[in-house]
Structures are given as structure tokens and as C-alpha cells.
Amino acid sequence: MRRHNGRLFRAARAILKDDAEAEDAVQDAYLDAYRHMADFRGDSQVGTWLVRIAVNQALMRLRKHKRESVVVSFDRPEPEDSNTSMEQLRDEKSESPMAATLRAEIRRLLERRIDELPMAFRSVFVLREVEEMSVEETAAALGIPAATVRTRLFRARALLRQALDREMDLVTGDVFGFAGARCDRIVAAVLARVAP
């Protein structure tokens, strides 16, 4: 389980977009795999078989939630990042707090944009790019042809690029901001040099 937990969680999270639901789906996947261990034919690796079970569990949960969806939606707060405690334990000599904060913010932005991808693209992207599964493993895990995996990955990358480009366009005007304290500091320094 320790060997496959991360991969199964990310696969389920890519479909469900919810940490707690993904954890539950992974737990159910392990139980399902245990119950059907005798059915494993060995056509693929155990990890691929487990990912396929986790994907099925996540899809079942997604269908169940769609059936149970309420007419009035309530905004749920974003789940807290479960990795913050690990980031706090990092050796500060190797990475400055500002660099760690910046990287965490970029990661959150990327995670939000990945969550916005259509499920078919999102699941392929996470398995291929994040989990670094091969095309064949991803195809087997998702039950789709290898050519479809390649196409969906290409499209997912394109959609992510577009979303990130839009994000960059919004902040480009604020890059290297000059007003405020920086401007005052430069003016004061110039005036100090000019005045005798």
C-alpha cells in the first residue's frame, strides 16, 4: 500500500477534485482489490491494476454525487493543503522561506488549473505527468486506447498552457511594480545626490 498510495490518491483526486473523497476512494479501492485478489490475471502490473480499481471507485463516487447533487449549491472552502506540515519541516538552509512560499503558491495555481480541466484530460494528465506512468500503463488504468491517452495528454497540456497564459496576462502589468516605496526611495536617493 505504501508503494502505491500516492499514485492511487492522485488518480482518484484527479477525478474527484476533493482530497477527502479521493482518500475514501483509495481506501475502497484497496478493499476491492483485496476482495478480488484472485481475479488478478497478471496481464498488467499490480500498480496499474490498483490504479484502475481506484479510478473505478472515483468514477462511482462521482456518479453518486451527481445523482445526489442539490439544486442549491454551497461554496465549499478549499481544503487545507495537507503538505504544509511537511513544508514547515524543510531545512531552511536549502531553501529560503520566500522561495518555499512562492513554489507553494505556484503549485496551488497549477493544481487549480488542473482541477479545471475536463475529467478525461485531467485524469490522463495526472497519471502521465504527475505519476509518470507510461502511455500503456495509463491506457490500461483508464481503460482507453493508447492513442487516446496521447491525444488527451496533448489536449490537456494545451488547455493548461492557455489557462496559465491567461493568468500570466492578468499579472504581467503588475510585474516589477514601481509605485510606492520603491519609487519614493529612488526619488529620495536621486535628490540626495543632486542637493549639496
Please give a structural write-up.
With 196 residues, this protein is an all-alpha fold. It has one domain: Butyryl-CoA Dehydrogenase, subunit A, domain 3. 70% of the residues lie in helices and 0% in strands. Helix 1 runs parallel beside helix 3, helix 1 runs antiparallel to helix 6 and helix 3 crosses helix 7. The model has no long low-confidence stretch (mean pLDDT 81).
The N- and C-terminal alpha carbons lie at a distance of 74 Å
In one word, what is the shape? elongated
Total domain count: 1
Largest sheet: number of strands, sense, barrel closure: none
What is the string of SSEs from the N terminus onward? HHHHHHHHH
Annotation, overall tally of beta strands: 0
Task: Provide the CATH superfamily.
Answer: PhyR, sigma-like (SL) domain
Category from helices, strands and their pairing = mainly alpha
Radius of gyration, taken over Cα atoms and rounded to an integer in Å: 23 Å
CATH C-level name? Mainly Alpha
